[in-house]
Design goal:
By secondary structure, the protein is of the alpha/beta class. The chain has three domains: 2-234, Metallo-beta-lactamase, Chain A; 244-351, Rhodanese-like domain (Oxidized Rhodanese, domain 1, 3-Layer(aba) Sandwich), CATH 3.40.250; 360-467, Rhodanese-like domain (Oxidized Rhodanese, domain 1). Helix 3 crosses helix 6 (214-222) and helix 8 packs across helix 12 (323-331). It is globular, with a radius of gyration of 24 Å. The chain starts with a strand and ends with a helix.
Length: 471
């Protein structure tokens, strides 16, 4: 028996490769399916099943492409309806993989079709559960994504309570919990950095599993849920209908363009220029009106949160050799419209003597000096919870997640100092404001992590009047 967790940090997503006696199964595969096919070929195994725990909202699954390339059968849980060939399992239905047995346990709550897969080993012992977004390490799935008609998040939370108590908590304490996500995913609110655990330990430490009543559970699980990123509903629709092969996306996206061709293509298509270099490299020089979302951060989720049109043509400026990786990570959240990249990277743009722009990036000490010398406008683009936990007493809370909503408040003639937690999100915000005509934006390098080392006054509770003050 082989069980391998394939964890992707950018999305905080876990797919699983299961193998026994020449047969294999994949649970919740990502878009780029060659990884799973190569593993099976190396082991001389046949991929028999592709198990989907639910219709994912935070990434586009590779289930259809993998099925076409491997001949495997796609399995969903009860109530699921797909526009492609699939097997809709009954509650309690069993599937054989070599000497192993997989049992579908219908566990609605996060979504109506959510299903946990129980793996029983060759000796008939319950070994582990693949819980999808039903049960995380330290948390459970948010119950607000599948609201329909009169069905509320409280209704779904009640279903989730029943699923956990009737299907999961009754299993042995030594059963291993393998969830679909870890810390950093927007599918829950307080997930652990650990990516698996025993069910017994989760019963002791997971607040949701310790709830004594359904009413307590509903109150705790629904408290403090932020609105989902705008791309979630779009990804669900894609996963229900299927998408083109990633090979076709590479074919149209991996087109090297000279600086002149790049510029001409922008003018002809209105494409977004997406610069994926390190934030500080971007600040020193970039193509005017390009947006910085660094590849070395939570790249795909931020693209999904901020670029509202999945069909928007995208042109890439990357570090050399990072073009294919960038396209791969874009496809994971449904952005398949890359139409080329700047050949030679930003350096080729400089060599061609074309216009460049810059963003001033200053140290926390320089920021402290500026704020002591005069009244400044400072924007904290961290999430609301981060701001409420601790912030400078004169900064305004303007979460990056909602920049498309609050930029209408911005005076393009004013100067704005921008910080986040470490410098990644603030450069995204600064680049977006720049592209929208706000010339005077100043980034604080290192973000709040370095600001805390200054003598600037901080408070550890929210100040609503400042947080909501118009800028």
């Amino acid at each position: 028996m082989k069980i391998e967790q394939i964890y992707t940090g950018c999305l905080a997503e876990a797919a699983y490769y299961i193998e026994s006696n020449g047969e294999a199964a994949i649970i919740d595969p990502l878009r780029e399916v060659s990884t799973y096919i190569k593993k099976a070929e190396k082991a001389n195994a046949t991929i028999k099943y592709i198990f989907e725990t639910h219709f994912h909202a935070d990434f586009v699954s590779g289930h259809v492409d993998l099925a076409e390339k491997s001949g495997a059968e796609i399995i969903y849980g009860p109530t699921a309806k797909t526009e492609f060939k699939s097997h809709i399992a009954k509650d309690g239905e069993q599937f054989k993989i070599g000497n192993l047995t997989i049992t579908a346990l219908h566990t609605p709550g996060h979504t109506l079709e959510s299903t946990t897969y129980l793996l029983t080993d060759e000796n008939g012992k319950d070994h582990c559960i693949f819980t999808g977004d039903t049960l995380f390490i330290g948390d459970v799935g948010r119950p607000d994504l599948a609201q329909k008609g009169n069905l509320t998040k409280e209704d779904l939370a009640g279903m989730l309570f029943d699923s956990l108590n009737e299907k999961i908590k009754i299993l042995a304490d030594d059963v291993i919990v393998y969830p679909a996500h870890g810390a950093g995913s927007a599918c829950g609110k307080s997930m652990s950095k650990e990516t698996f655990d025993t069910l017994g330990h989760q019963k002791q430490v997971n607040y949701a599993l310790k709830a004594q009543t359904k009413e307590q559970f509903i109150a705790e699980v629904t408290d403090g849920i932020l609105p989902p990123p705008q791309y979630f509903a779009k990804n669900v629709a894609i996963n229900k209908s299927g998408v083109e092969s990633i090979d076709e996306v590479y074919e149209k996206g991996l087109i090297a363009l000279t600086p002149q061709q790049f510029e001409d293509t922008v003018n002809q298509t209105g494409a977004i220029m997406l610069d994926t270099r390190d934030p500080q490299d971007f600040a020193k020089g970039f193509i005017p009106n390009s947006i910085n979302i660094g590849l070395n951060g939570q790249f795909a989720p931020w693209v999904g949160a901020l670029i509202t049109d999945l069909q928007q043509p995208i042109l890439l400026i990357t570090d050399q050799g990072k073009e294919e990786e960038t396209i791969t990570r874009l496809t994971r959240v449904g952005y398949d419209s890359t139409i080329g990249y700047l050949d030679g990277g930003f350096n080729s743009w400089i060599i061609s003597n074309k216009e460049i722009d810059t963003i001033e990036s200053i140290s926390a000490e320089a920021f402290e000096k500026a704020s002591n010398e005069s009244e400044i406008i400072a924007l904290d683009v961290r999430k609301p919870g981060e701001y409420e936990a601790e912030h400078l007493d004169f900064t305004l809370s303007r979460p990056l997640d909602y920049i498309n909503e609050w930029t209408s408040e911005i005076d393009p003639k004013s100067t704005y100092y921008i910080h986040c937690g470490g410098g990644y999100r603030s450069m995204i915000a600064a680049s977006i404001l720049k592209s929208r005509g706000v010339e005077n934006v100043i980034d604080i390098d290192g973000g709040y992590g370095t600001i805390k080392n200054t003598n600037l006054k901080r408070t550890d509770f929210a100040c609503p009047s400042k947080a909501m003050k118009a800028v």
